[in-house]
Fold each of these.
Amino acid sequence: MQRQTIKNIITILILAEIILSLYLVFIPEKQLCVSGFSCGEVQNSVYAQIFGIKLSYFGILAFSLLFIINAITLYTEHKGFKHTLRAMILLGSLFASYFLFIQFFILHKLCSSCLAVDTLMLIILLISIYEYKKYR
């Protein structure tokens, strides 16, 4: 797979993250929840907010910033932006892993939309690692 193709895939996945986060903010959880999941319980739990702000708002901000940094790296060879992008992807993946842990092992309830956001972040990490190892 060519480097540009990999970068385009990462860009598309980051856009999907932004769209899913926007849906989580503006669409009621019942409309986004796949049957059999407990989206309302997860999204209204004590773990769904930081400083009284819904995690979805942080998601919109973080994924938008990630998109901007990613776009800059598409058009420049500046190593600082590449390092920043990798650090942001790693940090986002750590948060995604933490949120998955909370759903599976603390709440024992799953939100289909939240699973999608967190899984996409981990996929972005894996693709980023592949790209780094292949083209370093």
Amino acid sequence: MKALALALAACVALAAPGAAQPPTAEPPPAAFRQDVAWSPDGLHLAWSEFSIVRPDTAPGWNIWIGTPAGTNILRAVPRARWVDWAPDGRRLVYSSNWDGDWDVYTSKLDGTDVKRITHGPAKDRQPAWSPRGDRIAFVSDRAGHQQVYLMNPDGGSVRRVSADTSEASNPAWSPDGSRLVWFARDSTGDRIHLADADGSNASVVPIPDAGAIHPCFLRNGRLLFTGVTPAGRKLLTTIEPDGSDPQLVGGIEAFFARPSRDGRRIAFLSGSWPRSRIGVVRSDGIAARVVVGDPRE
């Protein structure tokens, strides 16, 4: 994607939304990476990171972009988190509290041309851009507790998808954009929820162990998530949408993972606060390697 390559070549660090400054060097290992997303062409990763080590970055959360080899790392957006890519690779969607509330924004890859697409006192976070480009899923507490909503990329036509009293998090789209998956938490534990994009045909996926977090779809229709065992281990797991045939992915311990669009690789996060690292592994669980962060942490 020529446009994506050109945009990333110009990716710069910012002091404020929309204001370009010289590129920022690679972030230090001593930082917490919270989420990661593949560019549509699979040539780059974007992630949000919290670090109090670097004096030249905005305090708190920042969004970074780099290659899956851990090279050419640049800070794209200051004071923002929970990032995803537009399906054409030209824009990012993310959450920030620039205006005092957590709202959803989009911008070019270098942080310019910022557009605020949610408004109001609610916490609007964790956006996910649909593969078709026509909708953005996000979570909001505007109804009193955190639920999944959909909106157009300009922020219009907001509608609620989830319909229960648990706290929903991290919606993710099926490859064809027809379904959503998210995890929900209440006093009884964590659950994986599935629904059509309009909220119909909702179901809860039976899981084999103590819990499940950060689910997403694989290209083959299975679900990828972090399974939490009764002993508290967090292991990358795949499962059929009906809860059958659970399989571990190479015995990898991780708390967040997302597959590349072609399905060949998985980017994952491991570690715990205040230090975590980004790894990449083949979809069969072979050849895992740390690409951002210190492997010893």
